[in-house]
Amino acid sequence: MMKVLNFINGEWKESSSKQFAPVINPATGDAIGEVTVSIEADVGAAVKAAKAAQKKWALEPAPKRAEVLYKVGYLLKERKEQLARMLTMEMGKVIEEARGEVQEGIDMAFYMAGEGRRLFGDTTPSELKDKFAMSVRAPVGVVGIITPWNFPIAIATWKSFPAIVAGNAVVWKPALETPFMAQELAKIFEEAGLPKGVFNVVNGDGPTTGNALVEHPDVRVISFTGSNEVGRKIAEKCGRSLKKVSLEMGGKNAVIVMDDADLSLAVEGILWSAFGTSGQRCTACSRIIAHESIKKELENRLLEAMRTLTIGNGLDENVKVGPVINEKALQKIDRYVQIGKEEGAKLLTGGYILQEGEYNKGYYYAPTLFTDVMPNMRIAREEIFGPVASIIPVKSLEEAIEVNNSVDYGLSSSIFTRDVNKVFTAMRDLDTGIVYVNAGTTGAEIHLPFGGTKGTGNGHRDSGVAALDVFTEWKSIYIDFSGKLQRAQIDIDE
Ligand code: NAD
């Protein structure tokens, strides 16, 4: 049984509450560890340590800061298999996907370490003689990171690596369900030689620990990934204190299948993005917008393909769909299925909690497919976060795009077609932060911006160079070497 503590100022500490919460393996229902549950005082201690450490850290040359990240990358690589197995045990995703998630962390480490030698600003001509003008990125200070359980290590790397290379210090509150990855990442930072206090982990729940981080006056920026409901609350609080806040929230992502699509490819893409991670991805495909002329054929092919999905413990290499995170999630998914039926959608397969044999102890939901779903139904608009997909029939590309754009979210979308004109129209008109052509709705690469429009976010992005915008302030600098006072923006007749 692993006992997970906080990591504050380079030390492993129990919370001052003395309370622990169990860590449950969702595949078996077994308690596999426990985690310290923090209160405001613990957050205060972590922020204090971060604030003190940040001043010195920011003075290290950025390429030196990057050296730590390179080491972190190598350590993650060395431990990839061990981390992936631990991740599957605490979160449930199948081992192949867990390996993919750790790989994202590795890629992000090397990519952001490279930023240590870039962190580009601009130099630009001054409007005056003998004057030099430039802009540089300055660290914000103490960064508060709040993350969900569905990507317990990748999301933390998307946020902490750019923050750290840019000269900030971090206090991270992971999800209470998945503290193992937080512990392992902290150990790796420690071994890589990151100075004490630059990276801190405070475990705990949202309303107490997370909220304390949001409300702490010395935390200058909050980077949050999670549900829309919680993101809104955080944004309101940050708004009141004028704190910078970056939000990455839910999705209601669609795959559009046109009449000229390669249907075998579309089925593969849908299967992977709808039922991978048991549908618990912010980019999961939960809507299939199908041209009416291929709808029947697509339904049949999807049903056939879904029969090949092995469901079980993600540590088994043959398993394709693991459990969902907990009992609460099972009940939520099942509630949505009932709502779908009541709304008049046609259930093609699935729609129940798996309870036989080994499924009884874990949290398994049968991969579920609805058809003849109308765009205004709740199952077509609200995030279910489980292995449930809905086919929505349409008559044209224009209608498909309109349906795609009609939801409150705007994270990811995809179109399967062989027609170049349709491809470019969709690329232009789909109102989502990420668009895929002839691929499912998942598969983002770490060097491009990641995030969405409308209810998915508030205009910021994780990943790519865009992530640096969250963790830096622009500083514009003017150097006058004329030896006299030159006044800009003043009309002077010479
Ligand atoms: P959640 O919103 O319930 O929790 C996310 C984090 O916020 C957790 O660490 C939680 O403890 C904390 N929290 C909860 N209440 C809080 C409060 N009042 N103040 C401060 N912190 C608080 O989300 P979840 O169930 O862990 O994750 C699933 C959600 O995350 C889904 O909506 C999914 O779409 C979203 N998600 C989005 C992305 C993205 O990049 N857009 C990626 C992964 C997951």
From TrEMBL:
The active site is at E248. InterPro entries: Ald_DH/histidinol_DH, Ald_DH_C, Ald_DH_CS_CYS, Ald_DH_CS_GLU, Ald_DH_N, Aldehyde_DH_dom, ALDH7A1-like. GO terms for molecular function: aldehyde dehydrogenase (NAD+) activity. Residues 12-477 form the Aldehyde dehydrogenase domain. SUPFAM superfamilies: ALDH-like (SSF53720). It catalyses: (2S)-3-sulfolactaldehyde + NAD(+) + H2O = (2S)-3-sulfolactate + NADH + 2 H(+). Its EC number is 1.2.1.3, 1.2.1.97. Keywords: NAD, Oxidoreductase. PROSITE patterns: ALDEHYDE_DEHYDR_CYS, ALDEHYDE_DEHYDR_GLU. Pfam families: Aldedh (PF00171). It is an enzyme of class 1 (oxidoreductase). PANTHER family: ALPHA-AMINOADIPIC SEMIALDEHYDE DEHYDROGENASE. Belongs to the aldehyde dehydrogenase family. Homotetramer. Part of the sulfo-TAL (or sulfo-SFT) pathway, a D-sulfoquinovose degradation pathway that produces sulfolactate (SL). Catalyzes the oxidation of 3-sulfolactaldehyde (SLA) to sulfolactate (SL). This is 3-sulfolactaldehyde dehydrogenase. It comes from Parageobacillus toebii NBRC 107807.
